[in-house]
Write a structure and sequence with these properties.
Layout: H1 6-24, E1 28-38, E2 42-52, H2 61-64, H3 67-75, E3 92-97, E4 100-105, E5 111-117, E6 124-132, E7 138-144, E8 151-155, E9 162-163, H4 169-178, E10 185-186, H5 190-200, E11 206-213, H6 217-226, E12 234-237, H7 250-264, E13 269-275, H8 280-290, E14 295-301, H9 305-312, E15 334-337, H10 340-351
Parallel strand pairs: 1-7, 8-11, 8-13, 11-12, 13-14, 14-15
Antiparallel strand pairs: 1-2, 2-5, 3-4, 3-6, 6-7, 9-10
Helix pairs in contact: 5-10
Length: 353
């Protein structure tokens, strides 16, 4: 193998030092589970192992607080707190899904991303069980998609379902690290669109794909649930260094997720939902051109001129300055509207072709 990039060497050395110091002070491991997905042949289990100085049950005053107070405290939590974490590297794990149990370890950043085959579960929601060395057993929700399902939704998050004004650095930092969860704004009509489309396809999946950090997954999950979005896996990314550079490519993350989902569910034709404030039109157009048999329609939420300015500094979409190219396969309809209500009308027309 090629020598790891200096960025990953530095990060690994830092994590090993932090792990040693915190464990020496009595910190213990804690598992944070994320929603996974799968088919009748595999299940992808997602989560992360962290170090914490408090017992997971949080005895004391917090344990006796009313549920409403705890929920209010969660809602008002500043975003930066999600990034003050200590990943637990190389922790032994036992993961049980249906009839199968596999042994593995957390990766260099504490993440769990394990594919379990031959699990014996039928379509629907199930729970995987994650046992980590020194931590309490944790359940992880997984959605098993039936082999006969032919419809699904893949949705971006930032500026598609949540108004975040990404990726302009200072505004992104303010929204991510400073503002409370309850201060973020929902994009009108998007939850209605998703619920309506999935009501017409009751067993169809929805998958949320974003360049946001995994640290924000609990916050995003609560936000989506609070505003009536259908439950589905979140496929986020690690903002830290990689084996090839100091930062990960958000665009490559989205492309990889699209192709992986297309390979894992060859019978599904996806509705791809994004916005024109970043690179979604290009990413979705390239994917539709490469794999038109996997795309039912593309739905692009058009940002207002003010949102475009906040997003990247100019009042028009970045597409206006893109070089001419074949943007998508001719058989894949592209729907554009300012909110979910307008997109729903156009998407339903496209799906009825």
């Amino acid at each position: 193998m090629a020598r790891p990039h200096a960025a990953s060497i530095v990060e690994d050395a830092w994590h090993r030092r932090v792990n040693a110091v915190l464990r020496g002070r009595g910190w213990r491991t804690r598992v944070v589970s994320h929603t996974g997905y799968g088919s009748d042949t595999f299940v992808r289990v997602l989560g992360r192992v962290l170090l914490t100085r408090r017992p997971e049950s949080h005895p004391g005053a917090d344990a006796e607080a009313p549920v409403s107070e705890l929920r209010a405290a969660e809602d008002e939590q500043r975003g930066w707190r999600a990034f003050i974490t200590a990943p637990a590297m190389n922790v032994p794990l036992k993961i049980t899904v249906g009839d199968r149990t596999v042994l593995t370890r957390s990766d260099r950043s504490g993440y769990i991303d394990v594919t379990v085959k031959d699990h014996g579960l039928g379509p629907g929601w199930h729970e995987a069980v994650i046992n980590a060395d020194g931590a309490q057993e944790v359940g992880a929700a997984v959605r098993v998609i039936g082999p006969d399902e032919t419809f699904g939704i893949i949705s971006d998050i930032d500026d598609t379902v949540i108004s975040t004004s990404l990726p302009r650095p200072l505004i992104a930092a303010w929204n991510t690290f400073v503002r409370t969860e309850s201060a973020r704004h929902v994009v009108p009509g998007m939850a209605t669109m998703y619920r309506t489309l999935l009501a017409e396809h009751p067993d169809a999946p929805i998958v949320y794909v974003s360049t946001g950090a995994w640290n924000t997954a609990p916050h995003l999950g609560r936000f989506l649930k609070r505003h009536g979005y259908p439950l589905g896996p979140l496929l986020l990314t690690d903002w830290g260094p990689t084996n090839t550079g100091w930062f990960r490519s958000g665009q490559e993350h989205k492309r990889a997720c699209l192709h992986r989902l297309a390979n894992e569910f060859p019978n599904i034709r996806w509705v791809l939902v994004g916005d024109d404030g970043q690179h979604d039109p290009k990413i979705y157009g390239d994917f539709a051109e490469d794999r038109p048999d996997r795309v039912e329609a593309i739905a692009i939420r058009e940002l207002s001129p003010a949102e475009q300015v906040l997003s990247h500094g100019i009042p028009v979409s970045n597409e206006e300055f893109a070089p001419p190219r074949h943007r998508h396969h001719k058989d894949v309809p592209v729907c554009r509207a300012a909110d979910g209500y307008g997109l729903l009308r156009l998407v339903r027309v496209a799906l009825s072709r």
